[in-house]
Write a structure and sequence with these properties.
With 396 residues, the protein is α+β, with helices and mostly antiparallel strands. Helices cover 58% and strands 8% of the residues. It is globular, with a radius of gyration of 22 Å.
């Protein structure tokens, strides 16, 4: 069994009662079958509390005020305190580690829905490296498509290399990664995977970045397209199921700050935001964006081996990064022109909690991006490219 982790993976340590948020509220905590059997057999006061604090028909902990029944006012877990670490269910032992499973492979990352993990992921100055190691074990998935999986991993490796090439502006790198997935999707759809190597060679060749930038030079300059694109994206975000009771109000406030006064006012916000952050801060902005792109691509792209949706999954990564950055700009506007690293981390982790930790929300956004013509390739490329500070500053 091969395991892949980002190089910062082992830096995580739970902040426990020092955490500024909690992973024990806002969503249902599902209990694995082994832990359920353990909880059924537990005796004494802890066993009585377990019996009364679990929804046995659904296999989850009860919630009171959207907080886990075992979450103490101190922010600590009573189940951990009273029973020890061995009493935690698999969900609680694993989080915020996210595991993607493929035949003979486990890819493990830190999920940015945890604010401490988000600080680690977004706080890296260096490009992320991925480390492999092996352990005993084997498995057979039966009809697992190794050919498709190989092409997807090759494409992802190239996309990450493109995204981390800091000799080019991030907007150019990101738009190129999206176009790569678009072109790969046509080969998947036409059952022409044998042509994928030639495609990857073309995107990975010397001068490919410059050629691609030349072909997309006219995109991203229009205020109207950016305004309508982000108005639609954030509107669809607001239609998803809210997992945290405070999220709808926060999102509404950010949308109102950005779009409430109309298109011209939005353009002024974009230009002032770009002018304020250009210089020393724009380097941080691009690094935060790069880390987000690599995070979402690494986590979700190769899942296309199960559904064939390589391009929609790359669009999902693009939409997540774009929405986080747009909401960060809204935060800057609401806070009177202030946005620091902690503010960016906060909006990224809140967004992740709402989207990544609901299968329904994640699938709804993925399906929307796959089917809606209003989020086609040219529109998505324009939204990515218009995020470059120089483009934002001159948006017209």
């Amino acid at each position: 069994m091969r395991y892949t982790i980002p190089h910062y993976y082992r830096e995580f340590s739970c902040a426990a009662d020092r955490c500024t948020d909690t992973c024990c509220a806002g969503w249902e905590i599902m209990i694995d079958p082994v832990s359920l059997r353990t909880y059924r057999k537990t005796k004494g006061p802890l066993g009585n509390r377990l019996h009364n604090s679990i929804r046995w028909d659904q296999g989850s902990f009860k919630q009171y005020g959207r907080r886990c029944a075992f979450l103490a006012d101190s922010g600590l877990c009573d189940l951990y305190s009273d029973g020890g670490p061995g009493m935690l269910c698999k969900t609680c032992r694993t989080y915020p580690r996210h595991i993607e499973e493929f035949e003979g492979v486990r890819e493990i990352s830190l999920c940015i829905s945890c604010i401490e993990a988000a600080r680690i992921v977004l706080g890296r100055r260096e490009p992320v490296r991925f480390l492999d190691f092996e352990r005993e074990g084997e498995e057979d998935y039966g009809d697992f498509d190794f050919l498709l999986y190989t092409k997807l991993t090759d494409a992802r490796e190239l996309a990450v290399r493109i995204l981390q090439d800091r000799s080019h502006p991030l907007a150019e790198r990101a738009s190129m990664a999206l176009a790569l997935a678009h072109d790969l999707q046509s080969r998947i759809r036409k059952n022409r995977l044998y042509a994928a190597d030639q495609l990857l060679e073309r995107y990975g060749s010397a001068g490919a970045g410059e050629r691609f930038a030349g072909r997309t030079a006219g995109l991203g300059a229009g205020l109207k397209q950016r305004y309508r694109g982000f108005f639609s994206l954030t509107e669809e975000l607001g239609r998803l199921e809210a997992l945290n009771s405070g999220w709808p109000g926060r999102l509404s406030g950010l949308r109102n700050a950005l779009y409430g006064s109309g298109e011209e006012a939005y353009g002024r916000i974009c230009r002032e935001f770009a002018g304020d952050l250009m210089g020393a801060a724009d380097g941080d902005w691009d690094i935060w964006g790069e880390q987000l792109w690599v995070y979402f691509v690494f986590t979700y792209f190769c899942g296309a081996v199960y559904d064939g949706r390589a391009y929609p999954r790359m669009k999902f990564a693009a939409a997540c990064v774009l929405l986080i950055r747009e909401l960060a700009m809204g935060t800057w506007a609401l806070q009177g022109g202030r946005l620091d690293f902690d503010g960016f981390v906060d909006i990224a982790h809140r967004f992740s909690r709402e989207v990544e930790h609901s299968d329904e929300n994640r699938e709804a956004l993925l399906a929307l991006l796959e089917c809606e013509e209003r989020f086609g390739l040219e529109t998505m490329l324009s939204l990515i490219i218009s995020g470059d500070f120089q483009k934002l500053k001159n948006l017209s």
